[in-house]
Fold this protein.
Amino acid sequence: MGDLMQMLTALMGGKQISIDECCKDGRVRGIDNQDCTAIPLISESTTCRIVQEQCCAAVLEDNICTSGINMAKEQGVCDTQFTGSTCETKTAKMCCDCCLLGRAAREHGLTCDHSLSLGYQCGLVSRACCDDGAPDVETRNSLVSDKDNETLTEKENPLPNNMCSSGLAKCAQECVGNSTCACFKGYKLKPDGKNCEDINECLLGASNCRGGEHCINTVGSFRCQREVSCGTGYELMDSNNCKDIDECESGTHNCSPDFECQNTQGSFRCLPKNQCGDGYIQDAMGSCIDINECLAQTEPCRPGQLCMNTMGSFTCQRNSINCGRGYHLNDGGNRCVDIDECKGPDGACAGHGCINLVGSFRCECKTGFIFNSISRVCEDINECRHYPGRLCAHKCENVLGSYKCSCTQGFKLASDGRNCDDLNECESSPCSQECANVYGSYQCYCRRGYQLSDIDGINCEDIDECALPTGGHICSYRCNNTPGSFYCTCPATGYTLAPNGRSCQDVDECVTGTHTCSVTESCFNVQGGFRCLSFECPPNYRQAGEIRARVERSDTIRCVKSCQPNDIGCVLDPVHSISHTVISLPTFREFTKPEEIVFLRTMSPAHSSPQLSSDIVFDILEGNVQNSFDIVKRQEHGMIVGVVRQVKPLIGSLNMVLKLAMNYVTSGVVSHRNIVNVHIFVSEFWF
């Protein structure tokens, strides 16, 4: 057992705690009815934790079982006393029932060591209650203390006698006459008549523990343990008594090297090694402090003498006349007379009124001052501090003997010297343009076309309307900033500024007569200019209509076929007409969807007779730069229409001729064709 204790002590880590200390702590907490699964651990060792919890649980289980046994002994009934399904209730009821079982066996004269297959604890309780009060003829045991049991267990077994000497008895502990086995004190004979088992004196309630002590069963005996610890400075002895711990001998004191340790009951004292001489007293740190005998003793000197303290002692001097404050010795030096502090050019009051008093004086202070009875001078009254917020409307500044008021920025002092009036800062023209006075301040603002500076909030800066995020949309062509405003301009030729001053309007040179076209040419107005056009029909074609001096967008110059007699090639040529039309386009700023520019209208109905099997096919033959155009067939008002669309953006200035074909197809063969030349002029501007 000693080797196990050493092994478990070594397992506790850095702190040397034995397993017995772990169990002792657990039993103490069990006696206090603490929760054994949540008790504070005294070591980080897992072994110590298990011992703490199990020893704690053992105490609680013994107490619960003891309550059940006492209930069986006192009332003789269990069912009505223990109700519920908790573990504690079940344990108490089991011990109560098992005790009743043992008492019933004793009352019916049955043996206490029955052969029923009961649990271990139930069997112990049953036999203990059966044996309680009945003489034990099979054993020679009695209830003993730890001391008596140790004496008994240390002795050697008695020598066998009579038939025991034959060795046939094979008793576990003692053999008496006629091969009869017996047990040591604290044990009782088992039913086999040879082996012995421990008697639980604590369960039987037969221990001799005193009040304040708890019974703990041991093998062959029991011991009594105090329920309350001894406290700081004491340790619990095996005799269950508390013994003072000598901290000086054990070295657990905290006295410094200059002090000597002296043990006391439950504690210790630190006494300085060096002792102080007469006239000194030693403090807690061992230092020697001078004693002022003049204060510590009552009249250490004789009457008429004055006590003067010295280091470690005192002296007595002859008493001389000392006049108090406001008095001085007379010329004879034998009595004190009043001092007139008010004499002199300024007196004691420094320019204020002075009134002499017996042994003192008093000053009559001027307005704004107050007399200080301790320093005995006239001190300035800080009116701003004594009357905050009641003297001045804004700021109060203390001056000697008075005060003065001032105003915050934006205000001026009123005629009463206390209130503040608003200051009209605009009278001094602080702003570069416009100024608006507000209460306590002013606000600068600017005229239209200007904005207030973010730096000083006073000066006005010109707003560059052309540089604003919307500046690109203010003017159609070009925006020119001016101080406080802006103006728009248009291209030098071909445009004029609209009445709104922002948009540019195209000048129709063909209408105004400012073009330079000859009489044989036709004038066509384009955006930002004009074009002089001359259309001639090819051989075998003649122009339908007269030559126009001005061509509109909707105008079409048409050449129809006119063959010479017997000209078979001309007759077989499928092209019946060649037309010219003119269109002017801008450079689109935001090209998001196709733009429809030309409509080729036919005289063919949209739904022809099925027997005719005819159709019209539109095609772009030449001039489709970068595939910027396409042509789609549409039905409008029951007729077939070819729509030419611009599908890609074009950047001007740009001129092109888009050659289109209107093919009339009958039974899959082109019967005749009309050619349309679209002259497209793309301006460099979007307007």
The CA atoms of residues 246 and 252 lie 9 Å apart.
